[in-house]
Amino acid sequence: MPVKDVCAIKDVCAIAGIGQTRFSRSLDEPEKALACRAVLAALDDAGIDPSEVDAFASYTMEETDEVEVAKAIGAGDVTFFSKVGYGGGGSCATVAHLVAAVATGQASVGVAWRSRKRGSGIRPWTSTAVQLPTPAQWTRPFGLLRPADEIGMLARRYMHEYGATRDHLFNVALACRNRANQNPDAMMYERPLTREMYMTARWICEPLCLFDNCLETDGALACVVVPAERARDCRHKPVYIHCVAQGLPAQHHGMVNYWNDDPLTGPAWTAARHLWKNADFGPQEVDVAQIYDAFTPLIPLSLEGYGFCGRGEGAAFTEGGALEIGGRLPINTGGGGLSEAYVHGFNLITEGVKQLRGTSTAQVPDAATCLVTAGEGVPTSALLLRS
Amino acid sequence: MTAASTAPASTTPGGMLLPWADADGAPFWEYAGRHELRMQGCSACGRLRFPPRPCCPHCHSFDGEWTLMSGRGRIWSYVFPHPPLLPAYARLAPYNAVVVELAEDPRLRLVGNVVAIADGPLNGVPADRFRIGAPVRVCFHDMAEGVTVPRWLLEDR
């Protein structure tokens, strides 16, 4: 039997529904209830009855199992379920796994979701009773405790090697905040950011300050993946999943990566090679991007990794309002993890859908293509969406 | 956790995190206890690798050996964490954490702390003495009974 075209999934599936809860530092309901609310909202948005759902995908860090969601929402027989690891690196992969399932006939209606009370709940890095597995033994005893510390180390090196400055990181924080100021659902909707606020903010991990870090959020989101022809009969304009990719580079070391030849060339490069190999368009034809922004330095790194500029040019790319509406590449148009909500990047997926439906609160005129990315620096994933 | 992860305590009495070795990493910590910085190498092709793992990614031999390093290196990057942190670390903040690239192979990198003396605090060297590329040499600090970590001293210039 001949090997199938590697592009066999191209535009075969679409996102037909999206749903979300409120975003807040503290929500009353437990994560399981929030998960069910987001999933039901996404199915209602699509106009698909929950009994039709036969596939689920989420993150390994998701506390609510597919078993719990399925029985709560009244799903029928479920024939595909999958969980993806590496924290926020798995966001887009949840959708990618559903695409693989639906495109190959293993399921027909897939739901991906993330529910998390990171705002009012515990900070994972505070656990001392059980240390995270390898490579924690090589980092935590030395006080490299939090993701901000791990990324701060890469940020300092990046600034040293390529001349990036705090002003470049501010450009990222400002673009996200400006979009949040247009989005009533964003946690930072009524909180403008100025350069003075940024430059005088308290440090979290030098060289990263408060505004270089994502928000701590309670909230949940979900989306519905169906065959493209089914999506055309749903309530909203279909958003086609053009290409998907995961990325685990050679000799990469997981959640902390200081040990391959160039730690600044991360999983984004691997995912990008696969995406662009299969896509009908290239980085220059991306109208809007939702780039994983747990920390501001991930943006210049990802801009390079996904081919919007060359090695070391990611910081300079942010100059002159390039990331704002009307700029070269508007990013994180709902406010992103930095200023809308941090729910392991799932709000970047739903915002990508809103842009291609034409319903974003910071709409890019005539947006027809959108890149969505997952966490950079950790084993990652990405989606190319088109209208 | 692997079978080797049977550390009796995860922190010092003061709350500093102790390394929790897995089976692959255990020899590193055992040698550190003898105040020796050794890295895993392949007995077949001779290449060094870090973090440790069961077999060589180049020649796939499972025969390894632990090679003594000179203890010399350079700062690859550094940070100064500020609160919120675990209480024992918050008391020292801002302290330093560094990545050191080893003289034997700059792709061998160790996370650590720069200190003024081996048993000194993590905040004992002024921030303005840090720069990428600064030469350092290893020293060893006994954190607890039977638990030793490598640390780094700035080389005099």
TrEMBL record, chain A:
Which Gene3D superfamilies does the UniProt record give? Answer: 3.40.47.10
Q: Give the matching Pfam families.
A: Thiolase_C_1
Question: InterPro entries recorded for this chain?
Answer: Thiolase (IPR002155), Thiolase-like (IPR016039), Thiolase_C_2 (IPR055140)
**A GO term, aspect molecular function:** acyltransferase activity, transferring groups other than amino-acyl groups
What SUPFAM superfamilies is this protein classified in?
Thiolase-like (SSF53901)
Q: Which NCBIfam families does the record cross-reference, listed alphabetically?
A: PRK07855.1
The molecule here is called Lipid-transfer protein
Write down the species: Wenjunlia tyrosinilytica
Identify the taxonomic lineage of the organism of origin: Bacteria, Bacillati, Actinomycetota, Actinomycetes, Kitasatosporales
From TrEMBL, chain B:
- In this chain the ChsH2 C-terminal OB-fold domain maps to 66-141
- Organism superkingdom: Bacteria
List residues of the ChsH2 rubredoxin-like zinc ribbon domain: 29-63
Q: Name one Pfam family in it.
A: zf-ChsH2
- Give the protein's recorded name: OB-fold domain-containing protein
| Organism (species) | Wenjunlia tyrosinilytica
